[in-house]
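Milestone 3.1: sequence recovery, worked example.
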C-alpha cells in the first residue's frame, strides 16, 4: 500500500468517526460545549465553499484541505480565534477552491481537517465543475 493511499484511508477513517460522533452543544448564549468541525456548505460546491466550526475555548485555528490521494492542497491559517460559533458565511472559514499556487482544483472528493487547541477533526467535501 502506498503512502498516499495510506493517508487517504486514514483521513477517510477519521471522517467516518466524526460523521457518527454525537455532538452536544448548549444554546448560543452560553457558547459551545466542545470543539466541533461542521459540514461545509454548499456541498457539493463550485467554485467556493464555507467551512463552519465551533470552539469551546480560544484557540489558534488551522484548516488543511487534502485531495483524495492524501496530498495537501491548501492550508487556511485562521489565526487565534475566541471561543464561539463560526457557522455563518460572515464567520465560517472560506475556501475559494484553489490550491496553494492559486490554481482551481479539479472536480472530486476532498477532505478538510480542523486543528485547534490539541484536537483534530476531519470531514469530506465534493467539488463539481
Amino acid at each position: 500500500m502506498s503512502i498516499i493511499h495510506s493517508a487517504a484511508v486514514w483521513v477517510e477513517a477519521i471522517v467516518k468517526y466524526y460523521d457518527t460522533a454525537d455532538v452536544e452543544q448548549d444554546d448560543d448564549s452560553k457558547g459551545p460545549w466542545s470543539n466541533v468541525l461542521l459540514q461545509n456548505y454548499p456541498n457539493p460546491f463550485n467554485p467556493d465553499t464555507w467551512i463552519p466550526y465551533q470552539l469551546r475555548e480560544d484557540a489558534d485555528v488551522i484548516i488543511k484541505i487534502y485531495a483524495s490521494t492524501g496530498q495537501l492542497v491548501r492550508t487556511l491559517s485562521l489565526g487565534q480565534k475566541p471561543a464561539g460559533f463560526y457557522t455563518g458565511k460572515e464567520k465560517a472559514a472560506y475556501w475559494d477552491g484553489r490550491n496553494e499556487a492559486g490554481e482551481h482544483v479539479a472536480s472530486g472528493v476532498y477532505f478538510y481537517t480542523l486543528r485547534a487547541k490539541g484536537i483534530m477533526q476531519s470531514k469530506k467535501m465534493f467539488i463539481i465543475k
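The helical segments are 3-20. The first helix runs from residue 3 to 20.
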